[in-house]
Amino acid sequence: MTRLAPLLERNERFARDHVPVALGLPTAQVVVVTCLDHRIDPAAVLGLRPGEAPVIRNAGGRITPSVINDLGYLAFLAEELFSVTGPLFEVAIMHHTQCGTGFLADPAFLQRAAQATGVPEAVLRASEVAEPERTVREDVERLLASPALSSRVSVSGHVYAIETGLVTTVVDAVTV
Fold first, then answer.
1. N or C terminus: which one in the chain shows less Cβ crowding within 10 Å?
2. In what order do the strands lie in the sheet with 153-160?
3. Rounded Cα–Cα distance for residues 94 and 112 (Å)
4. What's the pLDDT at 85?
């Protein structure tokens, strides 16, 4: 038996009442980029329902080349398939307190992690979130500076406090 078995049972209960959402633009006109930490459920934290907002997750919720590529493709889809005129969507970058990537700020830990995983130190360092207010600002700037970002996409930065459950806006939505 797999550890997924109890979750598959939950899925069967979910599927009984499931109503599929048609392919279309996200109704909240927001794309959330956040951490893969299991303590954060973006749908619960932000009250999202299916069809409202895509969520991109990675270690630290950082803006990486892969995330930039995904956002570029989402902007292309919005323009190409749905003929959106005007603003396309807002990218809400949401870092959080107590992030496990914060350990990467310790050079000795970073070196051990690189040796154990085979991931270069520079790549691991780029996912570090020890000071979420600082890193979310850096990521907003990184995304806004990307030539791959459509000028019709805005970017905002937020921090989710694990301790309280509250999300605080650090950078209001800005466009290129």
1. N
2. 55-58, 30-35, 89-96, 153-160, 167-175
3. 27
4. 82
Could you tell me the pLDDT band of residue 136, with boundaries at 50, 70 and 90? very high
**Contact status, residue 171 vs residue 137, Cβ threshold 8 Å:** yes
Identity of residue 69: N
**How many CB atoms are closer than 10 A to CB 129?**
27
Task: Outline where 22-105 has alpha helix (H).
Answer: 42-46, 65-82
The percent of residues above 70 in pLDDT, for the chain, comes to 100
Q: Which residues of 22-70 form beta strands (DSSP E)? A: 30-35, 55-58
| C-alpha span between 73 and 76 (Å, rounded) | 5
Beta bridge partners of 160: 96, 167
Cα dihedral 19, 22, 27, 29 in deg (nearest 10): 130
**DSSP 8-state symbol, 86:** S
Query: How much is the pTM?
Result: 0.94
Q: Is the pLDDT confidence value at 80 over 90?
A: no
State the pLDDT at residue 16: 96
SS3 of residue 154 by DSSP:
strand
